TrEMBL record:
Official protein name in the record: MFS transporter
Gene3D superfamilies, per the entry: MFS general substrate transporter like domains
Chief subcellular location: membrane
Entry keyword Membrane: yes
Subcellular location, record wording: Cell membrane
Organism, as annotated: Nannocystis bainbridge
Annotated coiled-coil segments of the chain: none
UniProt family annotation: Belongs to the sodium:galactoside symporter (TC 2.A.2) family.
Presence of keyword Methyltransferase: no
Highest taxon listed in the record's lineage: Bacteria
Topology of this chain in the membrane: Multi-pass membrane protein
């Protein structure tokens, strides 16, 4: 493992994989609940289960794949075979996810549930080893921030394609089930290409050999979670992702029922989110070099919470104002992406210094349990808020009038839940800063 700067072509090829990651992380989180309730006619409470159950499957498979990649020996190294497997298996699962039969809500529910289990499993094969790679690509503290910043600079492209292009494709294809199918096929092709570039373009990436001996999965999980700074950071990161998952799932409802702007408003808000997020990456890198990663992480969290709460002021006809608010939110969102992932390899090094074992995969696998679990809980919370406040589901083409309580529920899910989650994570981050101040600076 080298401390010298990595070559730009390698960084760009590695970062390209995050386009596929951004697509799959965004589209189901943004559109799947809305697709179930407002196209397939599935009740909100049942639709939440179609999202929750596959993510519980993720909680099992993420650490399994992480530990598996730690032990893998191949001519392609420990991580890269998984990148290829994910690139081949995810696209058909993603297409199936938005190709559910229409008519019987129970059949639609079952189809989406099975397809989502397939897609999440395929995504895990790619994402866990992929995110483990920076810890063995370089040993330099700031170079790791550079690697992650490149990845996070490409991530918004995937997020933008998922959050802005996806609604445009659905609308341009006539909406309804056919529009969702066209969207899924188009974005699946983009994801497959991006993930393949990450596989082929990282042939020269520094890698570490698999350990000659490795503890069992249960012991590896125990060791990882006994690392106190890692455990605190993981918990704070997971709580934040509950809020991010909530705002993603709530945005289509927010655009349709609060702003009354439909798919066009969804596209505008995602462009407003992602554009500033890309521009903000050099800003957060500068903050990291000047004040440390943890201080930057706290600043980004506070900014995200404040901007999320400001979304309570939304009303029909205020799309331009809301877009500006979301733009500032995007700056905070960028920090919430770059800092925790840049801090993770440092914690892997802390563990290796004590145990003499490189456990990038298991640390990353548990990390994504926190991320995916948080995003899923956020989406599930939105479904429960909608069900509790009397939201009326519909099939494509039907017109319904939502009760006032459901409209209030949409606002709460979009603004209050994410802000509360961000603020709840702060004590863990402040405590972590104090316990690791010397390493951070």
């Amino acid at each position: 493992m080298s401390s010298s700067p990595l070559k730009r072509p390698l960084l760009l090829a590695y970062a390209a994989g995050s386009i596929g990651s951004g697509l799959f992380s965004t589209v189901p989180g943004l559109l799947l609940l809305f697709y179930l309730t407002d196209t397939l006619g599935v009740a909100a409470s049942l639709a939440g289960l179609a999202i929750l159950i596959p993510r519980i499957w993720d909680i099992v498979t993420d650490p399994l794949v992480g530990a598996w990649s730690d032990r893998t020996r191949s001519r392609w190294g420990r991580r890269r075979p998984f990148l290829l497997a994910g690139a081949l298996l995810l696209p058909p699962g993603f297409i199936a996810l938005f190709s559910a039969p229409v008519g019987d809500p129970s059949l639609s529910f079952a189809w989406v549930l099975v397809a989502f289990v397939w897609a999440t499993g395929a995504f895990t094969l790619f994402q866990i080893p992929y995110a483990s790679m920076p810890a063995e690509m370089t040993a330099d503290y700031h170079e790791r921030t550079r690697v992650v910043a490149h990845r996070m600079a490409f991530l918004p492209i995937g997020i933008l394609a998922g959050g802005a292009l996806a609604p445009m494709l659905i609308k341009a294809s006539g909406g309804g089930p056919a529009g969702y199918r066209v969207m899924a096929v188009t974005l699946a092709i983009i994801a497959a290409v991006a993930m393949s570039v990450a596989f082929f373009g990282t042939r020269s990436a520094p890698q570490l050999p698999a350990p000659s001996e490795s503890a069992g999965l249960r012991e590896q999980i125990r060791v990882a979670l006994s690392h106190r700074p890692y455990r605190r950071l993981l918990l704070g990161f997971a709580v934040q992702n509950i809020g991010i998952g909530a705002v993603l799932a709530a945005v289509p409802y927010y655009c349709h029922y609060t702003l009354r702007g439909g798919e066009a408003a969804v596209t505008v808000l995602f462009v407003s989110l992602v554009g500033p997020a890309i521009v903000a990456m050099p800003l957060w890198m500068a903050v990291s070099r000047r004040f440390g990663k943890r201080v930057g992480y706290i600043l980004a969290t506070v900014l995200f919470a404040g901007c999320a709460l400001s979304l309570l002021s939304a009303a029909p006809g205020r799309l331009a104002l809301v877009a500006a608010q979301v733009g500032v939110l995007g700056v905070g969102f960028a920090g919430l992406q770059v800092f925790p992932f840049a801090m993770l390899p440092d914690l892997v090094d802390d563990d290796a210094a004590v145990t003499n074992q490189r456990r990038e995969g298991i640390f990353t696998g548990l990390w994504f349990v926190g991320e995916k679990g948080g995003l899923t809980l956020g989406a599930w919370l939105v479904s429960q808020v909608l069900a509790t406040t009397g939201f009326v589901e519909r099939r494509a083409g039907e017109l319904v009038t939502q009760p006032e309580a459901a409209l209030v529920g949409v606002l709460v899910a979009t603004a209050v839940v994410p802000a509360a989650c961000a603020l709840l994570s702060l004590p863990l981050l402040f405590h972590h800063v104090e316990s690791a101040r010397n390493r951070a600076t």
